[in-house]
Design brief:
Bound molecules: zinc ion
Number of helices: 5
Strand content: 5-15%
CATH topology of the largest domain: Rossmann fold
Strand order of the largest sheet: 2-1-3-4
Length: 156
């Protein structure tokens, strides 16, 4: 599975790459030579909005993100790298810290999520590292839209 290193201006995109299950880390600091070198060293596709980076010599994969809207950025990356997002990969990775998520029993999250969320949501996942709890249900519409655009064989 493709892994990513994103510059710090792409946080919304990072969140969505993680939602889709892609191992994605953020490079704090400016998008420069250090960013490129780290991408090559960690064998990650480097994502940046800084066009000047494309003029640098670089052995790894650099993808300059053109759009400033997250939906279009998602489409750009999927199309240019020919990725095929799969439903079963969604919500396998923590949106906060990028570690792998684990299923959690619904009754165990009752005291940790807002009452309305507990009442309306049935599936929860938890990050064993940072303790964040997620409920994929609230993202279903956008997840389905992404799958419909990029993996039409994966219908609910
Ligand atoms: Zn986490």
């Amino acid at each position: 599975m493709t892994t990513f290193l994103a510059d710090s201006t792409l946080r919304k995109l990072v969140k969505w790459l993680r939602i889709m299950g892609y191992d994605t880390v953020v490079h704090e600091g400016t998008a420069d030579r250090v960013l490129l070198d780290r991408g090559a060293r960690e064998d990650r596709v480097v994502l940046s909005r800084k066009k000047e980076l494309a003029r640098r010599q670089f052995r790894g994969t650099l993808l300059i993100v053109v759009s400033d809207r997250v939906n279009e950025q998602i489409d750009e990356i999927i199309q240019r790298l020919r990725l095929v997002p799969r439903r079963e990969d969604f919500f396998t990775r923590c949106l906060t810290c990028n570690n792998l998520l684990e299923p959690v029993q619904r009754e165990n999250v009752k005291d940790h999520v807002p009452p309305y969320v507990f009442k309306t949501q049935h599936v929860f996942v938890k990050c064993p590292y940072c303790g964040s709890i997620f409920w994929p249900g609230t993202h279903r519409e956008r997840m389905t839209a992404i799958l419909n655009r990029h993996n039409p064989t994966d219908r609910p």
